[in-house]
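hey so u asked for the seq, here:
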Amino acid sequence: MKRLLRFLFILLLPTLCAVSAPAQLRYGFRFGGDIAAAKLNDAANASLCNRSGFSGGLVLEYQMPQCGFAPDIAVLYTRYNSRLSEDSKSPVSFGRNFIEVPLHLKYKFWIKSFHDLFGPMVYTGPSVAFRIGNDAKAPMSSKKIQPGWDVGIGFDIVNFIQITGGYRFGLGNTIDSYPGNQDATLRTNAWNISATLLFDF
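ran it, structure tokens below
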């Protein structure tokens, strides 16, 4: 299946690149909401209920010439809100705060008759979250560096506003220690939706 998709992409690439897009380096601001889909496993009778969070920060995008490829990098403040429930104990609500650095490779499918007005896009790429502080209410100690991989879709409007929605796959166990159970694992997965405003230098 992967080979077939790769083959089809290679066949379609010349067509997708037929609409020229000028090279352009832009900066902007990204704001969004997150719903952490963290998975807590092997933690005895404990379970996590995830709530909404948010993120925001700066982004830099380079639109490659004569094609729809546009890599970008961002530096975001990201907060995930969580609630831990354990048998015979009151639920504990706490936040997890990060400086997150996603590096995305986007492809914009510019439509000829609407070029520079509207372009659907897909993106993927790695993301590294650096924990800042540890909420005193958090029952576990988490690692300072938490890698992930992002995938998503969206659209570019008038080459100025980008609306995207995606999913972050947490890579590896993010718990340093969990009281009473050293085998517990936590992956920082998350759904997100965001808006980016881009400006020319």
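The longest strand covers residues 47-63. The radius of gyration is 20 Å.
lmk if thats what u needed
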